[in-house]
Write a structure and sequence with these properties.
Layout (H helix, E strand, L loop, with lengths): L5 E2 L2 E2 H5 L1 H20 L2 H31 L5 H27 L8 H27 L32
Antiparallel strand pairs: 1-2
Helix pairs in contact: 2-3, 2-5, 3-4, 4-5
Length: 169
């Protein structure tokens, strides 16, 4: 099943998810560094990574919803995509709450703020695995004509073009 929204022949959602995942996992890692060293500079970095991760997560979600709507109903892919999407909404909420609880960026984060951050990071690993299951195992977002010798997506006639004999979506 091909992705609904593509850029140069590749799914936009799959391109964008690296941003929130990297930023939010980075926030968790900097929170851990803060706990290890006691240096508030690490928690300051984490503080600013969180809203960047949330904003890029919302952007990725727009394209994820577009792809979700294209998955046929009553399929394993639709069920997994639903869990993936709902789980990622919870991830963003956990990090948003962590950000709000932190208050001033220069203050030391409370244990509750850190707990919310760690819970969001842990859940993001599960939802990331579900996303990998969708793409790698179930072929969601993969070009219908994908194979080990498929031509480049940048080759003329392949960029955002339907495969021969197929109608455009």
């Amino acid at each position: 099943m091909e992705a609904k929204a593509k850029l140069f022949g590749h799914p936009v959602h799959q391109m964008l998810i690296v941003l929130p995942l990297g930023l939010l996992v980075g926030a968790v890692l900097f929170d851990i560094l803060h706990l290890i060293t006691g240096d508030n500079q690490w928690s300051l970095v984490s503080y600013w990574l969180i809203p960047a991760g949330i904003l890029t997560g919302l952007l990725a979600a727009v394209f994820g919803v577009a792809d979700y709507l294209k998955i046929p109903v009553n399929t394993r892919a639709k069920r997994i995509a639903r869990l993936h999407g709902i789980g990622n909404v919870v991830v963003l909420v956990l990090f948003a709450l962590s950000f709000l609880v932190r208050g001033n960026p220069t203050d030391e984060p409370s244990g509750f703020a850190l707990l919310l951050s760690f819970a969001g990071g842990a859940l993001s690993m599960l939802t990331g695995w579900l996303g990998g299951e969708l793409v790698s195992r179930l072929g969601v977002g993969v070009h219908d004509d994908a194979n080990l010798d498929a031509p480049s997506s940048l080759k003329e006639g392949h960029v955002d073009q339907p495969a021969p004999g197929r109608r455009a979506a």
